[in-house]
Amino acid sequence: xxxxxRPGPRPRAxxxxxxxxxxxxxxxxxxxxxDRIDLVAAVDVDxxxxxxxxxxxAEAGFADVSAYSDLTAMxxxxxxxxxxxxxxxxxxxxxxxxxLKAGAWVLCEKPLTLSLAEYDEIAxxxxxxxxxxxxxxxHRYGSGAVHARSLLAEGTLGRPLVAQCxxxxxxxxAYYEVPWRGRWASEGGGxxxxxxxxxFDLMLHLLGEWTEVKAMAARLVHDTESEDVSTAxxxxxxxxxxxxxxxxxxxxxxxxxxxxxxxxxxxxxxLYGHSNDDWRYTPAPGAEQPPAPAADVxxxxxxxxxxxxxxxxxxxxxxxxxxxxxxxxxxxxAMYKSAFTGATVKAGEIGPGDPFYAAMHGDxxxxxxxx
Length: 371
Prior knowledge:
CATH class of the largest domain: Alpha Beta
Distance between the termini: 52 Å
Order of helices and strands: EHEHEHEHEHEHEHHHEEEEEEHHEH
Helix content: 25-40%
Number of domains: 2
């Protein structure tokens, strides 16, 4: 259950970017929680799209949303407490830092940044401002994921041994006709950064620290700068071994996580979101059936926004921020470095001076941006 709102005015929210992800997911989340938060401003360079969003917001119960074409002006005039960002990835770091400097918390679509260097720039802005930036990893927040993580942490399922993480989706040529897609400078990568990141973030959230990665990547179909498929082997700190597949070449689309533990196998099979019914537990011979969660809260932007508002009310760092979110981005960088160099990459080795710290392509001659 959500925590009670703290005394005083409800936090004031603004959205940046009014495309499909904000008009759909973020606005729906705000509407679900309008007893805890007010939407006061929206920013977009496309006036028609902005006006359409404000109309939709009014229908959702937010009648006084001020429209802006400039982020700086909005931050100075509206002074929001929370900024929700749903612009193309290339803008995420700059806009997040600007909001933090204005004293606002941030909830930004994935990827929060295009590199570890940019992520550390945001961490510095957090330190200077006292505000926090979270990345949208909504699959962590459904009741099924919360329950599975609790069972794993408590040892109810026994020691994790083998993990499989699968994001096999399908994107056609028309998908990549959007100018910023498939380009390192604007999207930061291929299905590792834009598609599979949700699923392997959940895998890492469930299993904890990883220690090393060995990966491969390829362009098999699409004429893009970045990959259209990748695979990886991963070793976790507790000794478990896992596999990761990220694809946009798969007509039979699915998202899947399977973790084989000493006492049970836990499986999640879905596509873009999960509820309790998408999780399955199979006990080992002689072991007890693991308990089911008490309630069903689907994974969603609303579930993550609820957790963020709980943290805001408590003045504590929100989930999906700080080191836990950085670890997911570091895992992506490690997959790219391993795939492009052929080396096994260990956790913590990509830092300032490493070309894969500054960009996911690492200036590799076969993968760096086309001139």
